[in-house]
C-alpha cells in the first residue's frame, strides 16, 4: 500500500539531488481589498494591505522540492538587475545551489505581478523578454548544466516559453542525460514538443497536448489517446502524464492508459499547481517510486496547493495527511 510505503521510508534517508533547468522569475503579489469602483473607469480600486515576492517558474518548482526535503541545483538565466539579485538571495536562503545560473546583462529578470483583492486575482502584469537566449548564453548555460549532471539523481525541464529552453539546449541536455542514464522530466510549453525528444516523462495539460499535435480539441478519452499516440511518435517519451484539471491526471505509455480521479474538493487558485505536480513526480521517482505511484502522490499534492491562494508548496507530511483523510472518507 502506497501510504505504508511512504511511512516506512527510513528517517535517515539521503535526500535526492535534483537539477532543475528552466525559466526563472519573480512572482510578486500585491494584496488588498476592493470595495468600490474607480470614477475614472469601470475597474475596482484596490487598497493595498501588503506586498510579497516569491520565486516563480522554475524557482517555484525548486521551492516545492525544497519543501519535500530534496537537495536542489538550479540552472537558468537571470538579468543583471535588482530582481535577479533578489532571486539569488531567495535561493541562498532556501539552501538551493545556484551555480547553474547564468547572468545575462542584455535581458531582464522576468517579473510577474499579480494584484489580488480578497481571494481573487484582479490583474497580472508581466515584465519580461521571451526571445530565445543568445548562443553565447546557451553555451555558458550548457557548460554549467553539464558540470552537475553526474551528481544529479534526476533532471527537470521547467519550460515557461521565455526563451531559455531552446530546441538546441534541450537536445544537448537530453542527449547527455540519456548517455549516462539520467531521467529527464519535462513540464512543457509552446508548440515545439520535438525539442523534448528522448525525455522520460513529458507532463502537458490537455490544452498543451492538443496544440502540440495540432488537434482542435480533446473531448474524449479516445481523442486523448490519439493525441498521446501522435506525441509519442514525435518525442519517443517513455511516459506522458496529462493533467486534466477537474478530471484528474492521465498516465499514458505507448501501450497503456490510466486515469487518476481529481482529489481537490475546493479550488481557490491553480497558480503553480503544475509546478507542484512536476516536483512531486521528480522527488518520488528519484526515491525509487514507480511513475504510477508518483502520479498518485502528485494528485494529492496538487489538491493541497490549489486550496491556497498564490503559488504554494506542500510537504511529504501534508501529502500523507491528505491521503489518510481521503482513505478515511472513502471507508
UniProtKB/TrEMBL annotation:
Which range is the signal sequence, renumbered to this chain? none
**Is Transferase given among the entry's keywords?**
yes
Q: Does the keyword Kinase apply?
A: yes
Query: Where's the Carbohydrate kinase PfkB domain?
Result: 17-314
Name assigned to this protein? D-glycero-beta-D-manno-heptose-7-phosphate kinase
Read off the NCBIfam families from this record.
rfaE_dom_I
Q: Which PANTHER family match?
A: BIFUNCTIONAL PROTEIN HLDE
- UniProt cross-references to Pfam families, sorted A to Z: PfkB
Q: Which SUPFAM superfamilies match?
A: Ribokinase-like
Which keywords describe this protein according to UniProt?
Answer: Kinase, Transferase
Q: Could you state one GO cellular component term attached to this entry?
A: cytosol
Q: Name one GO molecular function term.
A: phosphotransferase activity, alcohol group as acceptor
